[in-house]
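Task: encode each sequence below as structure tokens.

Item 1
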Amino acid sequence: MNRYLIFICLTVCILFSSCLTNKDLVYLQNKDGADIETFNLTEQPKPYKVQVNDILSITVKALDEELVGIFNPVETTNASSGNQAGLYFNGFTVDLHGNIEFPVLGKINVLGFTIDEIEDKVESELLKQYFKETAEIFVTVKLSGLRYTVTGEVGGTGVYTLFQDRVNIIEALANAGDIALTGDRKDVLVIRQYPDGQKIHHIDLTDIKAMKSPFYYIQPNDIILVKPLKRKSIGAGQTAFQNLTTIASILSVLVSTYFLTKNL
């Protein structure tokens, strides 16, 4: 019987230690007790540099709209309404060599350029090859939505597109149904694409210092992976009540087994 008691005590200790606490669930906690008022929380995101497979929305405006009609497909004007198919077929996709095929100008290399730099580049080439300075053209370049993937312990895994210039990781996760109670908020993985390949980064979303991380703001084509907590693998409950229910079931089985073996 002593062995049964020892086993029961160990089981109870393991299950109660597996209960989720606020430290596991609450985002952006001030763990160091620093003065938040004097703490610069937000990491200023660096300008995004265009990569292969990005889709750009480029519009050209001028005093005489007929002059720029060739550069602005009608369907592109509906891009802001969320017509992703329109963005795919009428936007400018960056090919494997980092080029886009632009009307009249032909191939323009945009790989590694920021949005502002691409605007200047397209405008400069148009003035050089097609327009005169008196045309007073104005070029606008935008990414055709911020596309990212969320998988793991979240409410809804999948590929999402948000039509915003800046999205932080908490907004991105909220859009995917938020992290489940069984998800590890302390070690969220961000798989980011670079010219030389993909790299895996870690961010602790329970620490307020996450807001200063270079991965707090997501980038196009990011993959956000939320790992399960270790306690999920041992089948522990998420609350004390669930653990008590589990313990009661184990005790019932153990007691029944003990008396059955004793009577044999």
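Item 2
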Amino acid sequence: MIICKNCGAEYDDEQDRCPYCGGDNFGKSVQVHEDMMNELEREKKRWKEMPEKVAGKGMSWTAKLGIAAVIMVAVICIIVFIVSSISHKVSYRVEQKNLEKLESLYQSGDYEGICEYLKTVEYTYQSYFDKYTEIAGMQRYLNYLNDEDDSYLQWIVENDKADALSNISYIVSILNECQEAADAYYKYEEEDAVAYYKEYCYDYMKEHYEISEDEIKSCIDKAGGLTYDDKDQITEALQKLAISRLKDKME
């Protein structure tokens, strides 16, 4: 096991890169390079020690081609190693730049900016992007909210179409993401974002459907908690409560 010089995490010294931050395992890279050079030196020494009849002028074309092939393979391996090392370094620097930008957006509370910036970033499935992809997921649900004007709400009430209040489904999905973060003890240090989205959801439900935070929590408690499997039950309960409040408001 070794300690990553970039993030301080401990990982298997046989891995090419740190699985936590993507930093190069320079120790292994140097060792691979040294092994290649040592092998070339050993090969060179073996040929020098061969009898004159083999290594000298009398060397067969087959032997010469063999030597050329070995040298060519060694040179190609060294070139591939150098190119790979440069590529890893460039990739690492790009990833660090992206992470710094995303964290800057997070610190400024620009969650919509995080959502948009991630569209320009490759390989966001890497674990060190999890904090920002999680926030982007919440923001996308928020972006799905539709404009429910008075005529639309009146149609819902007149036709008793509680399930047409799709915005409530998005709100419950955001709250579910927030709950998952809380259950994981905010392992990505995303507590500020979670607090923002929770407050947004509670304010939205109060403003549009006259449903309080306590009533939302009551529906969640009756369903046994806010989990992925309980989302539909909670959504349905809140939709029915919302249409009841809308009826009272329109009477």
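Check on item 2: The two ends are 71 Å apart (CA to CA). The chain is about 70% helix and 0% strand.
End of task.
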